[in-house]
Specification:
Low-confidence stretches: none
Radius of gyration: 18 Å
Bound molecules: adenosine monophosphate, fe (iii) ion, zinc ion
Helix content: 40-55%
Number of helices: 10
Distance between the termini: 33 Å
C-alpha cells in the first residue's frame, strides 16, 4: 500500500511515457503514483487513463521551479485541476520561457563550434517542456560528450560555457498558482539548498506539505524534515524523482515511497481548502 509521489515522464524531461510509468508502477505493486512533470500537466491525462485500466491511482501533479533571494526551490502541486485557466495560462508562459532559454543555450553551443540545432533539441524533447536534459542528449548525439553528466559538467551545468538561467517564479506565486488550481502545495526536496529556511513565508502563502523522503536526503535529513513537518502540521510526502529507466545514475521508480496515507492526507487537505473557498 505504498505511493511514489514524485515522477517525471516524457511530458517533461523523463524518458518513460506516462503509460509506461503506470505499467512499471503496476509491476512494482505500487498503489498510487503522482505524475509531477516540470511546468506541464500533459502527462497527467494519459497516466490517469492507463491508471484506470490497471487499477493504479494516479494523483495529478506538477513541479514548479521558483527562486527567492538567489535560493532555488521546487514546489510540487498535488491534486490540481489540470483544466484551471490560471494554471494553464501560467504553464504556457513557463513553457514559452523554457523554449526561448534553450534556444539561447543552443546558440551558445553553436558559438563553441558544435553543430547542434534548435530543431534537434525540440525533436528529442517531443513535449513543450524542453529542458537541459534534452540538450544534453543532442550533445551526446553530436559526439562531444559520452553521457548526460559529462554534458552538465562541461557545457550546460551552472557556470558552464553554454549555461543560461531559466525563468523562475517567486515561491509565493508558485504556491498561489497551485492553490488556485484547487491543489495542495508541497515543498520538494527541501534538503537541496536548505529551502526550509523559507518555511515561514511559504506556510503563510499556503504551503501544506513537505517532501520528507527523497533520494537526495540523508537519513538525518529525513528525520529532521519529518520532525519539522510534524511540528508545523504539514503533510509528509515523498517520492523517487524518477526520470526514466534509461538513466544509469537516475533513481529507480518506487525507490522512495510513502504509505498510502499520504495520498489520503492530500485529498483531505484539498477538500478542506476548497470547502473554505466557497
Ligand atoms: P532545466 O529545468 O532545463 O534547468 O534542467 C534541470 C533538469 O536537469 C533537472 O530537473 C534534472 O532532471 C536534470 N539535471 C540537473 N542537473 C543534472 C546533472 N548534473 N546531471 C544530470 N541531470 C541533471
Ligand atoms: Fe528533471
Ligand atoms: Fe525538483
Ligand atoms: Zn523532480
Amino acid at each position: 500500500m505504498s505511493a511514489d509521489l514524485h515522477i517525471h515522464t516524457t511530458a517533461s524531461d523523463g524518458t518513460d511515457g506516462p503509460e509506461e510509468v503506470v505499467c512499471r508502477a503496476k509491476i512494482l505493486g505500487l498503489k498510487a503514483i503522482a505524475v509531477t512533470d516540470h511546468d506541464t500537466v500533459d502527462g497527467v491525462e494519459p497516466a490517469l487513463a492507463a491508471g484506470r485500466l490497471s487499477d493504479i491511482e494516479v494523483v495529478t501533479g506538477v513541479e514548479l521551479g521558483a527562486q527567492y533571494l538567489g535560493k532555488e526551490l521546487h514546489l510540487l502541486g498535488y491534486s490540481i485541476d489540470t483544466d484551471n485557466h490560471i494554471l494553464k495560462d501560467k504553464l504556457s508562459f513557463l513553457i514559452g520561457e523554457r523554449k526561448s532559454r534553450i534556444f539561447k543555450m543552443v546558440q551558445k553551443v553553436q558559438n563553441l563550434g558544435i553543430p547542434v540545432s534548435c530543431e534537434e533539441v525540440l525533436a528529442v524533447s517531443r513535449s513543450g517542456s524542453v529542458g537541459r536534459p534534452h540538450l544534453a542528449t543532442v550533445l551526446i548525439k553530436a559526439g562531444v560528450v559520452n553521457n548526460i553528466t559529462e554534458a552538465f559538467n562541461k557545457y550546460i551545468g551552472f557556470g558552464c560555457p553554454a549555461y543560461v538561467p531559466r525563468y523562475k517564479l517567486h515561491p509565493v506565486e508558485a504556491i498561489n498558482i497551485i492553490n488556485k488550481a484547487g491543489g495542495v502545495s508541497v515543498l520538494a526536496h527541501p534538503g537541496q539548498n536548505n529551502a526550509h529556511e523559507l518555511l515561514d513565508m511559504l506556510m503563510n502563502a499556503g504551503l501544506a506539505g513537505l517532501e520528507v523522503y527523497h533520494p537526495a536526503h540523508s537519513r538525518e535529513q529525513e528525520y529532521f524534515y519529518f520532525s519539522l513537518a510534524r511540528e508545523h502540521g504539514l503533510i509528509i510526502t515523498g517520492g523517487s524523482d524518477y526520470h526514466g529507466h534509461g538513466h544509469k545514475t537516475g533513481n529507480h521508480l518506487g525507490s522512495v515511497t510513502v504509505p498510502y496515507g499520504s495520498v489520503k492526507e492530500i485529498v483531505k487537505k484539498k477538500w478542506y481548502n476548497n470547502g473554505r473557498k466557497t
